[in-house]
Amino acid sequence: MDHRVPAARIVFSPEDRQAILRLIDESLRSGSLTLGPRTSEFEESFARRHDVRHAIAVSSGTSALETIFRILAVEDREVVVPTNTFFATAAAVVHAGGTPRFAEISSATFALSPETVEAALTPATAAVVLVHIGGIITPEVYAIRAVCERAGVALIEDAAHAHGASFTGRPAGTFGQAAAFSFYPTKVMTSGEGGMITTNDDFIRDEAVVYRDQGKAGFLGGDHVRLGSAWRMSELHAAVGLVHLARLDEAISSRRRVAARYDEALKSVPGCTPVPVPAGSTSNYYKYLALLDPGIDRADLKRVLADQTGVSLSGEVYAVPLHRQPVFAGPGAGSFPLADDVCARHICLPVHSDMTDSEADYVVDSLTSVLPEWTTDRAKAR
Q1: At what angle do helices 61-71 and 87-95 cross, to 10 degrees?
Q2: Looking at CB atoms within 10 Å, which of 79, 259, 285, 295 has the fewest?
Q3: pTM of the model
Q4: Beta carbons within 10 angstroms of residue 151's beta carbon
Q5: What CATH number is associated with residue 74?
Q6: What is the total count of domains within the chain?
Q7: 163 lies in which domain range?
Q8: Of the candidates 46, 68, 262, which has an alpha carbon nearest to the alpha carbon of residue 162?
Q9: Could you read off the pLDDT of 44-88 as tens digits, one per residue?
Q10: What's the rounded Cα separation, in Å, for the pair 195 and 58?
Q11: Is residue 84 a part of any domain in this protein?
């Protein structure tokens, strides 16, 4: 085999590429290029797969979040956000006029806990964002929701990583008042660019379709009644998403097979401990998470792996927590030692939707060849 394993690989079969081209050709021939039949079909299929009443297609996962925050009227209020999330989670709060309030996480799940949510709540809190990091839904999701209900604040899911993931058989996107999914190219399924809002709330659905189309009361005309934006999904992107959605379960099955192989093999690899998926949680393995032993330099390890073996580790989730990002850092950002620790020490092994057993074995063999040297000779040299 070619002894190179990339950090990510975007998979479209020849049959899927042909199907996408046929749908795009229909759109080009009809002239229906935005908010047309492909978008509606994609929304209906996504809602059905994730067991929700409504799915609203938008231009990105970021715009999905901002739309939700605008509907919830977070302006001049606070939104609790885990500090180990992507920039967009907090930035969407700011763009909607609110203030992100960072919260500590559980080192076991990389997610908020009921205790960390309670600690972050203030009289100004409008909502709490639960992020399903790497495609894992925390088993404390119901307890977190109960905390939100008692406080009278909305629970929102950032499900950008979690297409098809579930907890106790219940899909991501169904635990809060609304959820935001991303279809960025590296996700388990993609539309090229795009996002989706899921909700069982009729009001949120009705408002979302207004916000995504420049705040207009109707697609074909009408007054501008909300401060919306150009957050529509094009028919061309919807065609890609519709076809890729049909492959979601197949992709997840392949990723779970690879993850099971990693789980077994890493039991005997020194210096690297897998982050277990909690009981009841069914991950889509957007990321395969593992923790390095303290003292191992992750950047150096990644360089050595890539240079000596051709294995590229996936991007972290996330390498630098938000309270340390320049745009948010400052005296009021807070102290979050658990997030600092897991953000600094975790790695993400490559998982692809078409990954072969031999590729997975090669990743483990490569780690096995590098880590013992790192944990002995290099550690002694420090």
Answers
A1: 40
A2: 295
A3: 0.96
A4: 17
A5: 3.40.640.10
A6: 2
A7: 14-245
A8: 46
A9: 999 999 999 999 999 999 999 999 999 999 999 999 999 999 999
A10: 5
A11: yes
